[in-house]
Every structure is written in C-alpha cells, then in structure tokens.
C-alpha cells in the first residue's frame, strides 16, 4: 500500500507540473500578440512594452514557465489585468459557490440514484423497473443546460416557488440552500440516471453470482444477501463513477452557473476567456485541473478501502 | 457401508418420487427433469452420475428450493423426513437450508464472497438460523471448531482472511465447513472435486467420508466421474436427459450395469485392461430439452433400440435389487429382445 501510495502521488505531481507548464504556455498558443489583444488597438508602443515586461513576456520561454510554476507553487497566480486584484483572491471568492454546487449535486445523485437503482434491482423486469430504465436514460441524455432551463421555467417562472438567479448569501444558510435547489438538480440529473443504472446493473450481477447462490443454499435471508452483499459490491463501481464525477460536475457547473447567474469558478473562467484575461484563465483552469487530479486520486484510494482484492493485487505487484 | 445392515433397514431420509421440473423459456415449456426418483437413507453416500446437461444441477436446486424464477416443480414429491418439501412455504424452506439440507458447490473460488472475510461469511450463515442476539463468542467458537475439523490450519487466525488468501483445496474445505456448520442431515455435493487436482481430490473425498462416518450425514454426490463414484459412493443413480435411468448399489452397477446407457458409460472409462485399443464413445449426442422424444430419451443412441423405445416412455422397473428405466427389462414393454437379469450378468460374484 505504501509503495502504491508513493507511486500514485508521484504520478499526481507529474501531472500537475505538466498542467502548469501547459498553462504558462497558453498565452503563446493563442494567435496574435497577447499584449496587444489585452490592450486593444489604441495602445502606444510604450504601454505595450510596460505591460509586456509586467507579464514577463520579454523573458525567454523557459524562464516564463519556471516563473509561473514557482509562483503557482507559492500560491501566487499573478494579478487580474483589469481589476488588479490577485487572481488567488478571485478564485478564493468563486470556489466555495462552485464546490458547494458540485458537492450538493453529487450528494443528490447518490441520495436519489442509489435508492432508485436498488429499487429497480429488487423488482427486476417489473413494470416499475422498465419505467425506471426509460427515465434513467432520459436523465442521462439530458444536458445540464436543458435541465436547467426546464427547471427554471417550471419552478421559478410558472410555479414561482424557487428563486431563479443568484446564490443568496452564505450568512443565511436557508436562503443559500434555497438558491441551490434548482442549479444542483439541473447538474445532478444526468448523474442520477447514471448512478441508478449502475447500481442496478452491479447489484444484479452480484445477485447472479455463484457466491450468492452459495449463501442462499445455506439459508441466508434474501434481505441480508441483497443489502449486505449485493449493495456492498455495487458500491465499488458507484464510488468510482461518483468520484470521477466530482471533477466532471465542477466542469459541468460552468453552464449551470451562467444560466443561474452564480458567481462561481465556471463563470469566472468564461468571463476571463472572453476578456482575454490570461492570468485569471490560467489560475481558474489550474484549480479545475487540480480538482480532477485530486478527485481521481481519492477515487483510486477509495476502491482500495472497499475492495480487499485490489489491495492484494497491488501488494503482489509492488513486492 | 453397503454391507451395513443397519442402514439398509433405516427409513428413508430423502425420497424423491416422480419429480418433474419444467423451465419456461420464450413461451415454451422445457422438461428439465422428468420422473426423477431417488431414495437416500441416513448416512448413505448416493452418487448421481450423468453427462453435463442431464439435470443434476436442476435436481439440487429443486431440492433446496432455489430453482430460478422460470423453473417450476410440475410434478412428483420430495419427502424429507416424511415431509414433502414442495408443500412448504418459502420461509420454511429457507429455514431448512443449511440446517437440514445443505450444499457444497463446484468452484470454491467463485462460490465464496470475495469481499467478505471467511469469518464474516460463516457468521452470516449462523445468524441466518439463530436469533439476532446469538452469542458472538459462542458463534466464533463453533466456526473455529468447524474450520479446524475440515483441516484449516490455525483457524482462529484465519477468520479475518479473505477467500483469495486461501489455496483452492483450502477454499473447498472452507465451503464444506460452511455447509456443515449447522450439522445438516443431508449434504448435496455438486462436482465438488472437479476443480481440484488429483491429490486434493483424494483429500476432499476422504474428508467427506470421514464427516459422514462421524455425523451420519447423508450425501448426494453429484459427479460425472465414475472413478470417484467407485471410491466413495454406496449407491449410484444414473441420470440421462433429465430422467433417472438406473439405480444400484455401487458394486452391482460396476459389475452388472443394466441400462444400455450405463453400459456405454462404463465402457467409455479408460482402463488398463483395454490399454492400446481405441476408447469406445457413445455415438450421437444427448437430445436437447426442446427435442426430447415421447419414449426413451436414449433410444436414438441405443444399440438395442426398437420402435417401442421411441414411442413409449419406459417404466422404472425393479430388477434384482436394481432399478432401471429400460424396455429391455420390462416384460410388458413388448421389446423383442427382452433381457433376463441373469443374461446381463458379466462375471458377477454372488452377494452373501
């Protein structure tokens, strides 16, 4: 386990460094002179030189990469071009909204998806199971922005029971939670479908396995077989999908944040891109990449906790 | 134990009589078992022999009450200690499983739950049959004792091991320990040694024999291996295409097979006497459940078949202590070459 942990952490570090390098080169990958794009056509050559020096673009490229990586590692992502606020501060303001949204959506996906899947597995091939299959596939194929618009129209406009835009304030948790309902549902809907299907399939594959037949032959109750054995095995793939889902949800939050006007990481990134605000884009994308890498790491480690066979294969390989 | 008079006079522990099991598949009814008749006395080891697909596994599922949802008992009865299993409700049948009738399966790797420790799986079995607040220490003691009995070294320390941490032979021992944990009177052993090498096979067979001798457990030993049958069984039931075709004491069956299928089966076992000559095989193949004939299922492969064989279902007739489902031995069948039991004798010694 220790060897594995070290290897896995080493890989993570390499990925993060590669992402940083790529981001620091981002400025040069966009066509045109970044400084002129930022300053616009009316800028004087003197102004261009000042900004170029300030952005460090007069340094050789390897130095630029080095400076960005070292800065990022020290928590310095530069200044916002327009407002001159540190990028880290902008990100720190945006992140809580996005993280709360993604985690709420994830929790919703698990809390609704798992019971739906269990129910469908319990009543395999019944009418309810078939109806659920149809519903799940509908959910999976529905993009979050469509779901967001539908939810907006129904609950915010026609029924007028939930707020349409904004986040409410953190100071008033109830208000904040109410503002969270529609965006989180919109974001979760695909994942509810996924999780329901996944749980059903994994449980049925366990229920058809030889060891379930064995325990039945020894008189173990179906209830125990179903909830203790089948569900435990179904949890592994579900954990896998959910933890990789967290990163996906953070990305998917972009559209939902725009539709619901939530000042999160997604909106920050999109606005920065449209303004060619490179330091903000770099910072925001770096944070999202870090989320991906870390959630994948956590996912890998969590399987190991749930499934003892993976631990052993690992130690056999590691030895 | 075949020469043990005590056993011969004991009442039957299990009496399967005319059992029919039908599978419903895509609107068709397939007869998986037809007229299966088996009796077992306490402490006997009954071999159930047949090719794959002959209904051996359906038989064990039916006895345990674990037929798949599309399978149904459509006729006959199975008396266990005088009670017909098929009239019991699902909860009554569940309570019998493990405590009265238990089972050991073929593949010990996939038959144990890979994500639970051995101790936890065995505890689940105990808990399934005793009140929820059963004494943990007592349960543990029973599990350790049982594991020790089947030959798992240092069982107390191995309770927290997972199935993949044991060897194949040990896993099968654990399966047997789980099956016998609640001291069932009837154990169904389904191809328990097929996945093991010969040395391990001998050890497991010895273990089953010893356990039978100690506890008087009746064992239905399902196998396709006649050599194993000869080693451990007291009596043998031969199945073909979902029907029982012959039943005999093990020595009688080998000395004097009555049914042409049994003869052919024995002839196809390699032996030293026939070394160098080509191994006889049975021509043709087992009919599929969808194309079972009206009459004898073996008729299309049988050297002695006559028109009556394909048309009339043979009766299960008693011939000098053996039972056989073949027109050759049924005087009322109208078969042209009726066999007298003595005519079929091949150098059989007179039993005392």
Automatic annotation (TrEMBL), chain A:
Key word Transmembrane present: yes
Biological processes, Gene Ontology terms: transmembrane transport
Subcellular location: Cell membrane
Pfam family, any one: BPD_transp_1_N
Keywords: Cell membrane, Membrane, Transmembrane, Transmembrane helix, Transport
Membrane topology: Multi-pass membrane protein
GO annotations of cellular component type: plasma membrane
Family designation: Belongs to the binding-protein-dependent transport system permease family.
Descriptive protein name: Peptide ABC transporter permease
TrEMBL record, chain B:
Entry similarity comment: Belongs to the ABC transporter superfamily.
Membrane disposition: Peripheral membrane protein
Annotated localization: Cell membrane
One Pfam family cited in the UniProt record for this chain: oligo_HPY
GO cellular component, one term: plasma membrane
Record's protein name: Peptide ABC transporter ATP-binding protein
Cited PROSITE patterns: ABC_TRANSPORTER_1, ABC_TRANSPORTER_2
Keywords: ATP-binding, Cell membrane, Membrane, Nucleotide-binding, Transport
NCBIfam families xrefs: oligo_HPY
Primary location: membrane
Family matches, as SUPFAM superfamilies: P-loop containing nucleoside triphosphate hydrolases
Any single GO BP term: peptide transport
Domain ABC transporter residue range list: 16-266
A GO molecular-function annotation: ATP hydrolysis activity
Organism, as annotated: Micromonospora sicca
Region ranges (Disordered): 332-352
């Amino acid at each position: 386990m220790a060897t594995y942990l070290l290897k896995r952490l080493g890989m993570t570090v390499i990925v993060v460094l590669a992402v940083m390098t790529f981001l620091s080169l981002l400025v040069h990958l966009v066509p045109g002179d970044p400084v002129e794009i930022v300053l616009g056509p009316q800028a004087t050559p003197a102004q261009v030189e000042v900004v170029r020096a300030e952005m460090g673009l007069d340094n050789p490229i390897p130095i630029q990469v080095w400076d960005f990586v070292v800065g990022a590692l020290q928590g310095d992502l530069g200044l916002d071009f327009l407002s001159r606020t540190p990028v880290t501060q902008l990100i720190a303001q945006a992140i809580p909204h996005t993280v709360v949204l993604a985690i709420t959506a994830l929790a919703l996906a698990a809390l609704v998806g798992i019971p739906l899947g269990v129910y469908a597995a319990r009543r395999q091939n019944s009418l309810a199971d078939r109806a659920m299959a149809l519903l799940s596939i509908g959910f999976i194929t529905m993009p979050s922005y469509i779901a967001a618009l539908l939810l907006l129209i129904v609950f915010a406009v026609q029924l007028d029971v939930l707020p349409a835009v904004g986040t409410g304030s953190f100071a008033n948790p109830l208000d904040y939670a109410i503002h969270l309902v529609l965006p989180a549902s919109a974001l979760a809907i695909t994942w509810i479908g996924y999780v329901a299907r996944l749980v059903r399939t994994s449980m049925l594959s366990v229920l058809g396995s030889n060891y379930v037949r064995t325990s039945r032959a020894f008189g173990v109750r179906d209830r125990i077989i179903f909830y203790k054995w089948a569900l435990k095995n179904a949890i592994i793939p579900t954990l896998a999908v959910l933890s990789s889902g967290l990163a996906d949800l953070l990305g998917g939050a972009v559209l939902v944040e725009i539709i619901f006007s939530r000042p999160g990481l997604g909106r920050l990134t999109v606005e920065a891109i449209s303004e060619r605000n490179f330091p903000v884009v770099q910072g925001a994308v770096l944070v999202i990449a870090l989320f991906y890498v870390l959630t994948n790491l956590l996912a890998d480690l969590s399987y190991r906790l749930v499934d003892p066979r993976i631990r052993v294969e690992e130690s056999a390989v590691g030895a | 134990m075949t020469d043990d008079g005590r056993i011969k006079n004991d009442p039957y522990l299990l009496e399967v009589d005319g059992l029919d099991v039908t599978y419903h598949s895509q609107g068709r009814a397939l007869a998986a078992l037809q007229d299966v008749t088996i009796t077992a006395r306490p402490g006997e080891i009954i071999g159930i022999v047949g090719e794959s697909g002959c209904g051996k596994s359906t038989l064990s599922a039916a006895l345990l009450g674990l037929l798949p949802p599309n399978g149904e008992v459509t006729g006959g009865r199975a008396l266990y200690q005088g009670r017909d299993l098929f009239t019991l409700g699902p909860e009554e049948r569940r309570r019998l499983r493990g405590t009265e009738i238990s089972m050991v399966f073929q593949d010990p790797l996939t038959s144990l739950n890979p994500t639970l420790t051995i101790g936890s799986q065995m505890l689940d079995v105990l808990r399934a049959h005793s009140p929820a607040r059963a004494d943990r220490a007592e349960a543990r003691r029973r599990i350790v004792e049982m594991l020790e009995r089947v030959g798992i070294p240092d069982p107390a320390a191995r309770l927290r091991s997972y199935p993949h941490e044991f060897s194949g032979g040990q896993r099968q021992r654990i399966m047997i320990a789980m099956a016998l944990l609640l001291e069932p009177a009837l154990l169904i052993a389904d191809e328990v040694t097929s996945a093991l090498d010969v040395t391990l096979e001998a050890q497991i067979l010895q273990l089953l024999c010893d356990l039978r001798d100690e506890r008087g457990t009746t064992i239905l030993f399902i196998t396709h291996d006649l050599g194993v049958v000869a080693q451990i069984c007291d009596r043998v039931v031969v199945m073909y295409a979902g029907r029982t075709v012959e039943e005999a004491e093990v020595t009688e069956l080998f000395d004097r097979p009555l049914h042409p299928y049994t003869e052919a089966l024995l002839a196809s076992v390699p032996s030293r006497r026939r070394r160098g000559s080509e191994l006889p095989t049975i021509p043709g193949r087992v009919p599929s459940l969808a194309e079972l004939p009206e009459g004898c299922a073996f008729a299309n492969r049988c050297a002695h078949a006559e028109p009556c064989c394909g048309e009339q279902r043979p009766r299960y007739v008693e011939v000098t202590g053996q039972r056989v489902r073949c027109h050759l031995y049924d005087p009322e069948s109208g078969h042209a070459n009726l066999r007298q039991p003595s005519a079929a004798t091949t150098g059989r010694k007179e039993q005392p």
